[in-house]
Amino acid sequence: MAQNTRTTPAGTPTNVTQNHTKGGIGESTLRPDGTLKVTGEFAYSSDMWHEDMLWGQTLRSTVAHAEIENIDISEAVAMPGVYAVLTYDDLPAKMKNYGLEIQDTPVLAHGRVRHHGEPVALVAADHPETARRAAAKIKIDYKELPVVTDEASALAADAPLIHEGRDDHHAGHVPHPNIVHRQPIIRGNVEEARKRADVIVEGEYTFGMQDQAFLGPESGLAVPAEDGGVDLYVATQWLHSDLQQIAPVLGLPPEKVRMTLSGVGGAFGGREDISMQIHACLLALRTGKPVKIVYNRFESFFGHVHRHPAKLYYEHGATKDGKLTHMKCKIVLDGGAYASASPAVVGNASSLSVGPYVIDDVDIEAIALYTNNPPCGAMRGFGAVQACFAYEAQMDKVAAKLGMDPVEFRQLNAMEQGTIMPTGQVVDSPAPVAELLRRVKARPLPPEQQWLAAGEAADVRALPGGLSNTTHGEGVVRGIGYAVGIKNVGFSEGFDDYSTARVRLEVINGEPVAMVHTAMAEVGQGGVTVHAQIARTELGVTQVTIHPADTQVGSAGSTSASRQTYMTGGAVKNTCEAVRAKALEIGRRKFGSYHPAWATAELLLEGGKVVTDGGEVLADLADVLEGEEIDIELEFRHRPTQAFDLVTGQGNGHVQYTFAAHRAVVEVDTELGLVKVVELATAQDVGKALNMLSVVGQIQGGTTQGLGVAVMEEIIVDPKTAKVRNPSFTDYLIPTILDTPTIPVDVLELADPNAPYGLRGLGEAPTLSSTPAVLAAIRAATGLELNKTPVRPEHLTGTGA
User: Fold this and answer.
1) CA-to-CA distance for 238 and 246, rounded, in angstroms?
2) Of residues 248 and 16, which shows the higher confidence score?
3) Is pTM beyond 0.85 here?
4) Which of 7-21, 81-95, 110-124, 711-725 has the lowest mean pLDDT?
5) How large is the angle between the packed helices 384-402 and 342-351, nearest 10 degrees?
6) What separation in angstroms does the CA of 16 have from each of 25, 227, 264, 607?
7) Alpha helices by DSSP H, 79-121
8) Which controlled-vocabulary keywords does the entry list (predicted)?
9) What distance in Å separates the CA atoms of residue 604 and residue 516, rounded to the nearest whole number?
10) What does the pLDDT look like over 728-737, one tens digit per residue?
11) In sequence order, which residues have a C-beta less than 8 Å from that of residue 85 and are 6 or more positions away?
């Protein structure tokens, strides 16, 4: 790092240290940041403060598609307390766009805005209210253009092109410029297989736009440095990806953009793209002062991508004895105005669209569209969520048409280890789909009419409508539904997915201490806990310090795709093993002549000592390390994957698969259309539970997020104007503790031999099957088809679309 004289901002992350005599892999050690968070003492990025800092504000477009005819900043510039007002013309570098894969997103709009809420200008002022008022004084003249909002308007022969003159690597493989990416998968012969089917079931499904709804809004602090660079403290999911996008548009070499992860208040995919990072840096470099930007909730809805809304068209065939013959589907994802992660989401949606079932003959097509709707990208489940909603509804329909039990029908067709995926990839680790279904079905059902448990007076909290006191049980019907899903783990399709860990082992105050340094973004998943557990297990020390994540160590990749425990955990494990080997080498050099076991035995580090595999103590680790310091940085990669063929979709595209099943029990007030989810039982294979407390928390959290999109969560976009109608938590509803049911969790541990410790990425899988399980239960209670998420009261009462 370049040496700069600077004041460290208040709230800057510091080392996190825990002392444990045990606390290794397999134990439910507590999070080192947990107490701070629940007591309100944890410093999030929005809490950061720097002496003499300014406040940044973004002016965003009020229309979804328009030409910018003029921008007048004169009144804003003239306001007292305003230090800078920036537009596209003030950008310092030749590169003026950014993007995760396709650099199609402008730092500030130039000539044209493509979605509601697109950034157009920036303001820096000495007070946040001054900055907001100055931004409001900027006058923009728009000439509105026709909006593209759906598949029909996007792919029409005369459709306005969202991006003219595309030259990205997907442009040559799509049938229309408004298609970001297209991935077909063809295997077998669907037309021949259709002839063998005794029943054929078709369905059309609509999945709404879901927001990640993290509670900590986008925020960060940019501090200009004496070397002409900038230090950025920010809440993000992927420090090094941010760096690769930020440095070029600032006109700076990467080493002059130094990034440190600040406290993150949730992510779920919504922080994988750039939000305020570049804007804060631009203002800091222009003014020569630290600049802090914090979005309010309204702006947050425009400041990050969302889950792709989707239309899904499915056909399944089956024989009369219940074997699936074929599947044909088309998945249309709305990517919004900019590409973000849409190409990879298309790859996931297509390759996982068959679900965890054996179907030899498939014809699959998935596309993502460019439209004038809000940009969509990464969100927990990443394309597999939308597909699971559709194929699980189809499984219930086929089972019903055959007169079969829906769980037994699924088990009959369930994949297992050795199954060949539609892409031709062999599932080479445990795939206990049938067992997961058996477990959730076998679990005892919750008692009926629980609201009467305390006596004759109804406890309305247990009823649909809750404390609104709309019913005391009249018209309430119970429904039970099942679903199971499949999700990939890690980055796929040939991406060079790796993570880096640096581990230092030294003696401090007579005790061996390990320092673990990675760039992993801790967004709430508990990675800092697991890294310390790995270090204790591999190095036999009690004290482990976790260094703040920053870009002064190699990339850890994104905290997404259920990959961090596998990838950065794998990097920490490998690096600790190298450190251990070096420590034993030092021990042999110092003490090898004192005991023959130094040369002949299998040696371990346990409890701060060097021991043989038979338990004999050879030396204290502190004595071995006296006068020594071991410091090693290594990269870890999973086994390579392949890009899917652009015609057939064949290829070993994924690293690992993970599975979860749910049983939903609901009570529905059929007269008012109100739903109470009573229980969401789940079973999931996690390979190896490194920390069972964290495992259960992740599964319950993912389950709840799936519940939200089933019955309440949706960003509403006006189909005529492409404007967002509900950018607030007043109108965009998420489950609270009163909405969240009992979530019993059944954990399987069937090791994946290719993964560190045999673990299986687990954070996303429960988000898949909880949604269709809830929908299936509501269908069972009402007899309605319900092919759209979320289910609203008017859908159940027949009073709305």
Assistant:
1) 12
2) 248
3) yes
4) 7-21
5) 20
6) 18, 29, 15, 21
7) none
8) Oxidoreductase
9) 20
10) 999 999 999 9
11) 73, 76, 77, 121, 122, 123, 124, 134, 138
Round the CA-based radius of gyration of the chain to a whole number and report it: 27
- The Cα 334–Cα 180 span in angstroms is 10
Three-state DSSP at 78 gives: helix
For the chain, the first-to-last Cα distance in angstroms comes to: 59
Is the omega angle on the peptide bond into residue 744 within 30 degrees of 0, that is, cis? no
Distance, in Å, from the CA atom of 537 to the CA atom of 24, rounded to the nearest integer, reads: 5
* Whole-angstrom distance, CA of residue 66 vs CA of residue 144: 4
The predicted-structure confidence for 414-465, as pLDDT tens digits, reads as follows 999 999 999 999 999 999 999 999 999 999 999 988 877 656 666 888 889 8
Percentage of residues in the chain having pLDDT higher than 70: 97
> Judging by beta carbons within 10 Å of its beta carbon (0-12, 13-18, 19+), is residue 602 exposed, middle or buried?
exposed
DSSP class per residue in 9-63? PBT----EEEE-SS--TTS-PPPTTHHHHHTT---BGGG-B-TT-EEEEEEE-SS
* Paired sense of beta strands 324-334 and 361-369, if any: parallel
Instruction: Classify 504 as helix, strand or coil.
Output: strand
How many Å apart are CA 492 and CA 560, to the nearest integer?
12
Q: Number of helices and strands (H, E) in the chain?
A: 19, 29
Cα 120 to Cα 56, 109, 126, 373, 635, distances in angstroms: 13, 5, 21, 17, 40
355's tokens = 């679900």
Select from 277, 285, 131 the least CA-distant residue to 223. Answer: 285
Mean pLDDT of 246-257: 98
pLDDT at 4: 41
DSSP strand pairing (54-60 vs 603-606):
unpaired
Token pair 């940085």 is at which residue?
A: 633
- 488 DSSP β-pair partners: 657
pLDDT at 2 over 60: no
The amino acid that residue 184 corresponds to is P
Q: How many CB atoms lie within 10 A of CB 794?
A: 11
Residues 6+ apart with CB under 8 A from 420: 426, 427
Helix axis angle, 406-413 to 384-402, nearest 10°? 110
What crossing angle do the helices spanning 765-782 and 692-711 adopt, rounded to 10°?
40
Is the confidence at residue 765, as pLDDT, over 50? yes
Q: What is the pLDDT of residue 456?
A: 61
pLDDT tens profile 586-638: 999 999 988 999 998 899 999 999 999 988 999 999 999 999 999 999 999 99
> Which pLDDT band holds residue 7 (cuts at 50, 70, 90)?
low
Q: Cα separation of 233 and 11, whole Å?
A: 10
What integer best gives the mean pLDDT of the chain? 95
* Residue 680 tokens, joined: 């969401």
The two three-digit tokens of residue 744, written as one number: 């019993």
List helix spans (H) across 381-499. Answer: 384-402, 406-413, 433-442
> Which helix (DSSP H) or strand (DSSP E) does residue 77 occupy?
helix 74-78
Length of the chain: 801
- Any idea what DSSP says for residue 638? P
Q: Which class for 320: exposed (0-12), middle (13-18), buried (19 or more C-beta within 10 A)? A: exposed
pLDDT tens column, 37-54? 999 999 999 999 999 999
The amino acid at residue 171 is: A
CA angle 58, 60, 61 (to 5 degrees): 165
Name the DSSP class of 100: S
Rounded CA-CA distance 157/130 in Å is 47
In order of 305, 408, 601, the CA distances from 598 in angstroms are: 56, 58, 6
Provide the residue type at 323 as one letter. K
CB 401 within 8 A of CB 713: no
Tell me what the mean pLDDT of segment 508-519 comes to: 97
Distances (CA, A) of 796 to 13, 257, 789: 49, 54, 12
